[in-house]
Amino acid sequence: MKHPLIRRLGAKPSHKDGFSGSSPTIMPSASAIREGIAVRKALSDMRVLVVDDNPDNAMLSQIYLRKSVKSADTAETASSAIAKIGEAAKNGKYDLVLCDIMLDNGRTGFDVEKEAKALSPGTIFVFVTGHDRGGFAKNFSGQEYPDLVLQKPIKKDALLEFLGKLCDS
Known about the structure:
The chain contains seven helices and five strands; from the N terminus they run H-H-E-H-E-H-E-H-E-H-E-H. By secondary structure, it is of the alpha/beta class. A five-stranded parallel beta sheet has the order 2-1-3-4-5, with helices on both faces. The radius of gyration is 15 Å and the shape is globular.
């Protein structure tokens, strides 16, 4: 049976099995907590940018966040994400970017983070991937597994629980 949002909106998540089977208990890594990576705001005051080259995944994450954060915008390319982050840095930056690791034209979420940090240094990046640690190591040799990562498929309760642990709420 399809998830109700998929039925209602016609969304097609890129990950097989869509929204079944993943555990909602996801925590930021111990090293991220140790290093004090946290948003100094309540979840309801956060401005979030969702970056995913699959428009259905971006839309679904935006829907999940809509009632829990101050604003949730989307970007479907690395270039548009960087442009939006640069524009937002001028007038009240994004607090957090929820960014898919594999993006368009061979670019990655890590590329977006590197460029975005120059424009908006305090913005926190949470990466989204279908890879577990082993799959990640095979596809990104030499790259460290991110401290803040959500594994696909993302469930609404898992996303909000994870972000809630990063906030002062």
